[in-house]
Amino acid sequence: MSGPEKMSGVLSPVITPFTADLGVDADRLVRQCRWLLERGCGLAVFGTNSEANSLSVEEKIDLLDVLTGAGLDAARMMPGTGACAIPDTVRLTSHAVKLGCSGVLMLPPFYYKGVSDEGLFRAYSEVIQRVGDARLRIYLYHFPQLSQVPITLTLIERLVKEYPDQVVGIKDSSGDWSNMEAMLTRFPGFAMFSGTEAVLLKNMQNGGAGCISATANINPAAIADLAANWQAPDAQAKQDEMNKLRTIFQALPLIPAMKVAVAHYAGDPEWERVRPPLVELSAEEKAGLLAELERLGFEMPGLAEPQTA
Amino acid sequence: MSGPEKMSGVLSPVITPFTADLGVDADRLVRQCRWLLERGCGLAVFGTNSEANSLSVEEKIDLLDVLTGAGLDAARMMPGTGACAIPDTVRLTSHAVKLGCSGVLMLPPFYYKGVSDEGLFRAYSEVIQRVGDARLRIYLYHFPQLSQVPITLTLIERLVKEYPDQVVGIKDSSGDWSNMEAMLTRFPGFAMFSGTEAVLLKNMQNGGAGCISATANINPAAIADLAANWQAPDAQAKQDEMNKLRTIFQALPLIPAMKVAVAHYAGDPEWERVRPPLVELSAEEKAGLLAELERLGFEMPGLAEPQTA
């Protein structure tokens, strides 16, 4: 079977910078992606935390071209490609595969609720058939709190049986360890990424693939280090340490909070912008966040240094 | 203020026919739209019941061109144009306005949940600014069960105050009469369409604009007749009669059930197809539905007759 190796380790659902007119700021995104790669993080661009569902398919295709055109390694990329409409999912997925991305992270169609496993199976099948490329590697995206369309164990079983070479893993953002544990047990070899680094050590100890976590935007080196060295004696101490940082961000609207942190440590207020329907942190939230980060002695080394895009 | 008059009466969220390879069947859609117009129904194409969120923006733009190109009256159209990403909403809305559609039905961005009224206000504002056309008439689309992003009274108040010429009405699919009543009271002159004909008479009696209802695909003439003659002495009897039909459909997955009915009465099984993640009715569901329709003596006159597309 030709095609990319299964992905593992830590990926960041890279936050997306916007220009003053709310366009995508491709140059800043390239710099951020490079900063993350240099710290051991893969690039799950177009994730929930990338505000990906606030971007059009055209914007995402253009960005993938810019990122790879800037020399960033497509083999380290797992762009989110799942949309409500099959033609959109097919178009973006095909483009990602052609550019050499090692995988795609695929939400189910998420407008219609209460849909059956049969309907979701058909949706994924249709995408796989239409993309029609042996290099396609799908990581399912289970995020019931936002998509409201869960990926059940029964659906995974059926997809893996029918498309063993294409459906190779999952990101579980449910936060429900019992669901992650059930997948690790029932589907050995299926690459299970937790949607948070809070259970990264546990996931690695149980045969998981790694994590794709929002706060990998903020704390990439430490999280990547734990994924690589989870068998080291100080692993639990590292896990406990990174949980402190995550707790701070989780108390706030996560996406604007991460953007405030990047803006602050990069010395670049442009980073604070979000696209509606999201809104920026209030002045109070922002001051509170930065005070807490300072109290923790937190830094983002290398972010403020001049970079060549 | 130049631009279209406020819309009223009954509109059908026209079901979308698909070809064997799941492409959009534009010819059948044109015929269906013509059949609906001839029975007094306006065309809320690209509604929830049109499987609109399973269509790409490009498919919807092409369909609008085909519908108007076939001579159907754009003044009777209120296409659904609200998408998750502002650029998509802007693109489709601009096209609809340019073609002369009297209004657009606009879902809020629906991927991110728990967003603030401020964020939704900014989203609608951004769309209005970017479309930048005095002819734009927005009917907000409140469907919390599916979108999971409600349009609150506070948001409506703010939008109507800021954009009195653009934000002119709403479709309320919540099924919650108390919410509809609150809008009728607080926003006189704001065109309130109920999302079901089950409260059509009550809505008209309280100053509402009409309804945009799934089952207007099946029962257009009777529903349009009640909207036009709601002050007649037999109005309640008509309301009671049409409720019987709606009850039959509501007991089933609504979209595939309506397609089964159209397929049956048109003598055209092609109509049964749905796009994933939806699935067709089971054989049992189908037989049960058709038996109930027969028991009711239901017919769809004119649907099976040869039509010129």
Describe the structure.
The structure is a homodimer of 309-residue chains. A 7-stranded parallel sheet of chain A has the order 2-1-7-6-5-4-3. The two termini of chain A are 36 Å apart. Helix content of chain A is 44%, strand content 9%. Chain A has helices spanning 26-38, 57-69, 86-98, 117-131, 144-147, 153-162, 177-186, 200-205, 220-228, 235-250, 254-266, 283-295, and strands at 9-12, 42-43, 104-106, 138-142, 167-172, 191-194, 210-212. By secondary structure, chain A is an alpha/beta fold. The longest helix of chain A is centred in the C-terminal third of the chain and has 16 residues, at 235-250. The mean pLDDT of chain A is 96. Chain A is built from 12 helices and 7 strands. In chain A, helix 2 runs parallel beside helix 3 (86-98). The interface between A and B is large, with 40 and 40 residues.
Sum up the structure in keywords.
7 strands, globular, 309 residues, alpha/beta, homodimer
- Percent of sequence in beta strands of chain A: 5-15%
SSE order of chain A, as H and E? EHEHHEHEHHEHEHEHHHH
Helix content of chain A: 40-55%
What oligomeric state do the depicted chains represent?
homodimer
Q: Report the average pLDDT across residues of chain A.
A: 96
Query: Can you count the helices of chain A?
Result: 12
Major β-sheet profile of chain A: 7 strands, parallel
How many β strands of chain A by DSSP?
7
Shape of chain A: globular
Distance between the termini of chain A: 36 Å
Major interchain interface with per-chain residue totals: A-B, 40 and 40 residues
Record the strand order, biggest sheet of chain A: 2-1-7-6-5-4-3
Q: Radius of gyration of chain A from the CA trace?
A: 18 Å
Low-confidence stretches of chain A: none
